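Example 9 (inverse folding). The structure is encoded as follows.
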């Protein structure tokens, strides 16, 4: 199961994130997301656990808990394709076509 972990302390290291979740079972990966320009942590990451029961227990017990002075957010990660399934983008939902100015008249 892929797990989203948010509101992390910006100084947390990936190894510390891994160790936090290893208390609940096997962890196949732990990744903190960094800004590509500043190389600073964005304050969130992802943990992959192969056993769903262990992952669910980790989510239940860690969500809202204090880690390194911050109350972290922990939940099952939603795949991008699922998350954006209903996204229409832009002004595609405008009725009647034409420009906005035409529709306002």
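The amino acid assigned to each position is listed next.
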């Amino acid at each position: 199961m892929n797990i989203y972990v948010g509101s992390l302390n910006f100084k947390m290291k990936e190894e510390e994130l891994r160790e936090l979740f290893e208390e609940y079972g096997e962890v196949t990966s732990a990744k903190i997301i960094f800004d590509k320009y500043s190389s600073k942590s964005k304050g969130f990451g992802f943990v992959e656990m192969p056993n769903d029961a262990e992952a669910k227990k980790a989510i239940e017990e860690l969500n809202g808990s204090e880690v390194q002075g911050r109350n972290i957010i922990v939940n099952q990660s939603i795949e991008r394709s699922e998350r954006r399934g209903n996204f229409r983008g832009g002004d595609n939902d405008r009725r009647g076509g034409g420009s906005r100015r035409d529709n306002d008249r």
